[in-house]
Write a structure and sequence with these properties.
This protein is mainly β. It folds into two domains: 85 residues, Immunoglobulin-like (Sandwich), CATH 2.60.40; 281 residues, Beta-galactosidase, Chain A, domain 5 (Distorted Sandwich), CATH 2.70.98. The chain is built from four helices and 27 strands. Strands 14-15-16-17-26-22-21-20 form an eight-stranded antiparallel sheet, covered by helices on one side. A seven-stranded antiparallel sheet has the order 2-5-4-3-6-1-27, with no helix packed on it. It has a four-stranded antiparallel sheet with strand order 7-8-9-10, with no helix packed on it.
């Protein structure tokens, strides 16, 4: 009997071990080796990404449940990594190079295992359904996507006629961007926003999607959301509708915020994918009334607003296709907080882009024009970098452009 009992116990133990051994939680970690060439982005805490193939034990695991530890060859320091899965295509591995990274070739290892990220803080989303979506890094609010659409009365219709993004201060307590408000100067300027004062659909909508007279931007739904230790991304479907509800443009608006070392408050990619509604569309206006813009809060001290441009630029109004423009603003708040905002233009954006970057009330940005065929798609890409204090050196802002326009090259070795 004792022998039989021992056999049963032993069998039970073996079964338990077999079950545990088959668990992906206890499976051997996956280690990948990657080669990185930072290029001109070196020294800018550049974001890095590369396509990878996940092992079968992680292939069906939600990206949020894959823990990634990155190490540079010769260093024991652990840098957080993040896997991002897309509905189409391979998963991508993301991390951020150290701010002092050199331009030379580097080798990194990525250790992947099943489990929640251990790095604190991490990005997370907090939605107030039907009104706004907050992005938090730990407990600090970073951005707020204002997507409410309410036509119950004229005032609410005016307050919600366009989607836009607020940016929070370094403490995550107060916004540094302008929102809706009748007392606000040029109240149609709101946060980070996109519009065209002269939009025309052949044989259809003709509207001002800047002042929003004769049209609205209506949030339809969220198409995707992800968040982790390295980045947070959301994609929204936005319909640009004429006064009679006719579709003028279908837009997929995607924002990605990246983990960055202090003192950076925000590094954000703003990507707009615009699709014509089966008819030709003309997108036009002028640098003061069209494009992708940043609008400072109404508390700005207009007497202290300054602008900076790449070396050699003396007349921004005469320039075309600037790499970037930056504004330094001071708010009339306790301590007179000062912020620098760099607006970065991607080289794939339409040629002939002009910058408006001289208004003392803090509205500046890039203005492209485009002619879309019946079912054409146009992608606009910009990056926003926000830091507290005075202007960083121009060389640093140029590196930020390089990290966006010519990001580090990643090669999966094994």
């Amino acid at each position: 009997m004792k022998s039989a009992t021992a056999i049963v116990i032993l069998a039970s133990i073996l079964v338990a071990l077999a079950v545990l051994g088959g668990s992906s939680c206890l499976a051997a970690d996956t280690v990948l080796t990657l080669r990185v060439k930072p290029g001109e982005a070196a020294g800018s805490a550049a974001t890095v990404s590369g396509a990878i193939t996940l092992p079968k034990e992680l292939a069906d695991v939600p990206a949020e449940e894959i823990r990634v530890e990155m190490r540079q060859a010769g260093s024991q320091d652990v840098v957080p990594g993040q896997v991002v899965k897309c509905p189409k295509g391979q998963p991508t591995l993301w991390w951020v190079l150290p701010a002092d990274a050199t331009a030379g070739e580097q080798e990194w290892t990525a250790t992947l295992s099943r489990g929640k990220a251990q790095d604190k803080p991490v990005f997370r989303w907090k939605d107030t359904p039907g009104d706004h979506l907050d992005l938090l890094f730990g407990d600090r609010r970073v951005t707020r996507y204002m997507y409410g659409f309410d036509t119950s009365d004229k005032e609410r219709a005016w307050e919600t006629y366009k989607v836009f993004y607020h940016v929070f201060d370094a403490e995550g307590e107060n916004v540094i961007t302008q929102g809706a408000g009748r007392k606000n100067r040029y109240a149609h300027h709101r946060g980070l926003f996109l519009g065209f004062s002269r939009l025309a659909v052949e044989g259809g909508v003709r509207g001002d999607f800047w002042h929003m007279s004769g049209g609205v931007q209506k949030h339809e739904e969220f198409l995707g959301m992800t968040a982790g230790p390295v980045l947070a991304r959301s994609t929204a479907l936005v319909h640009w509708l004429g006064k009679d509800g006719e579709l003028a443009l279908a837009e997929e608006r995607e924002t990605t915020a990246y983990r960055q070392p202090e003192p950076t408050m925000l590094l954000l990619d703003f990507v707009s994918r615009l699709k014509a509604p089966g008819k030709p569309v003309s997108l036009n206006g002028d640098p003061e009334h069209a494009g992708m813009q940043f609008r400072a809060h109404g508390d700005i001290d207009a007497k202290k607003t300054q602008y900076m441009f790449p070396e050699g630029v003396t007349n921004v109004k005469a320039e075309r296709d600037l790499a970037w423009a930056a504004m330094n603003m001071t708010l009339k708040r306790e301590g007179d907080p000062q912020y620098t905002v760099e607006h970065i233009n991607h080289p794939d954006n339409p040629e002939g882009t002009r910058y408006s970057a001289y208004r003392d009330y803090g509205r500046f940005g890039a203005f492209p024009t485009a002619e879309l065929g019946p079912d054409d798609r146009l992608t606009l890409r910009y990056r926003i970098w926000v830091v507290p204090g005075d202007f960083p050196p121009g060389e640093e802002m140029q590196k930020r452009w390089a990290a966006f326009a010519e990001p580090p090259v990643v090669e999966l070795v094994k």
